[in-house]
Amino acid sequence: MSFVVRPCAPRDLKDIMRLVKEIAVIYNVPLETLRTNVQELEKDGFGPRPRFECFVAEVPPERKSKEGHTLVGYILSSYTYNSWKGKNLYMDNFYVMPEFRAMRIGNSLLNEAAKAAWQQGCSELRMHVFFHNPNNTAFLERRGGENLTVKEGWNLLRFYEDRLRKMADQSQA
Asked: Are the beta carbons of 129 and 56 closer than 8 angstroms?
């Protein structure tokens, strides 16, 4: 199967949102709760201070999906900082459409993100993986990823918007 992995361009954002929605459906996230849209992605990814980096996987038109799509996967990440290790790359989304899996597309996307991280001086690549999908964890572990929940007992916590707002309101600043 021929495909190309390349940096995301603004023209790809409609397809990125399509894939984001596919992921939401897989994880039973109500689509009406998604805050991100094409305009937000364009502002945050291609504005004066980009907040994320994204690579896409594209197949030639003759290999398009059943629905007619040629953009079949992506990896979206941002740079974060770890007080022990310095700069690292956090992968927020890593997705390949099911009909295009087992074709080395995911491996190529991951390698491209790793290359970008290495070129930016990162010491680590990080991401969270849904525990009900052991295939995703196994895919990353086969490539050298360590499951920190198992190895070190780390938990991932989140503060939702309402709590974030409440904490911000309580700030002395």
From this structure: no
